[in-house]
Design goal:
296 residues, globular, single chain, seven-stranded mixed β-sheet
Length: 296
């Protein structure tokens, strides 16, 4: 009897230690708590976590990308109304509004049951599990992969190809992939790969390495390219955000030279740089105004 008691005590101690290592049991997803979700991993197990405060940027807040807005808005409208629509790859210059545009269409169409799930590149291997969780729901889901790029032989590369094209099962009708990247083909390109190109008559055919890299980006039905802003576009974005942040027309007009110097110091005339400048200026103007009011 003593041996049995010792065995039970050791078994209970072992179970207690194992319970510490096991992931906590996740509650069912509260789909009504948010319009956006993140895929989170703990202890090798993933779950969908509601985003408490989604970034509710408006399409009207995005300037200098009218053609891109039209393409993404039209594709998303088709999707939420049950019409055929494409997976989207948004590529190009940094800070030009690629990820903001995805957030803006969520803000516009969430009342039509559009939802967004953000998945980190390292968790793309879990895409089949995510799709299985949402495929039977009535909502329409955009799986959002931001700043996407791959190195050779990454596990998420093949997982993304499977979800984009389907494997033995058809792709889910209520799921699209929207991805942003600074690379058109999502993978680095090397000079050595140019040596693989072959001449066939008058034509040039890429080698196997290049073909493999192109094969992933080709699975996105809609490519949307973004380009660096010129000076006028950049200043227009600055003016928009300064007005949104409460600056007067006179205050806005006086900031042009400083806005250009700010962009020069950053080496970029991007929408992100314009937003950062507007926050800096509006904060300083409001602080100066408060100081004057206090002295008066």
């Amino acid at each position: 009897m003593s041996d049995l008691s010792k065995f039970l005590e050791r078994a209970e101690a072992l179970v207690a230690r194992l319970e510490v290592l096991l992931p906590a049991v996740q509650p069912p997803v509260d789909w009504g708590s948010s319009i956006a979700f993140r895929w989170r991993k703990a202890g090798g197990h993933g779950h969908l976590q509601p985003v408490a405060h989604p970034h509710k940027i408006r399409l009207s807040d995005l300037s200098g990308v009218d053609r891109q807005k039209h393409l993404i808005e039209q594709n998303t409208r088709q999707f939420v109304t049950g019409l055929p629509a494409n997976n989207v790859l948004l590529t190009g210059a940094r800070g030009t509004g690629k990820s903001s545009l995805v957030k803006a269409v969520l803000n516009k169409f969430h009342r039509q049951a559009l939802r967004l799930i953000e998945v980190d590149k390292h968790d793309l291997i879990d895409l089949p599990d995510i799709v299985d969780q949402i495929s039977s729901r009535s909502e329409r889901f955009i799986i959002f992969c931001d700043d996407l790029s791959f190195e050779a032989a990454e596990a998420g590369y093949k997982a993304l190809k499977v979800v984009l094209d389907g494997s033995i099962s058809a792709t889910s009708e209520n799921v699209l992939i929207y991805a942003t990247s600074n690379r058109r083909h999502l993978m680095p390109e090397y000079m050595q790969e140019n040596l693989e190109y072959k001449h066939v008559g008058e034509e040039i055919h890429p080698g196997e390495t290049s073909e493999e890299k192109i094969s992933l980006s080709e699975r996105f039905g809609l490519w949307v390219s973004f380009y660096p802003f010129d000076q006028d576009d950049y200043l227009g974005i600055v003016e928009h955000w300064l007005a949104e942040l409460g600056c007067s027309p006179r205050e806005i007009a006086a900031t042009h030279e400083e806005a250009l110097q700010w962009a020069l110091s950053r080496g970029s005339r991007s929408g992100r740089v314009a937003w950062q400048f507007a926050r800096d200026v509006s904060g300083r103007l409001r602080a100066a105004s408060a100081a004057r009011a206090k002295r008066g």
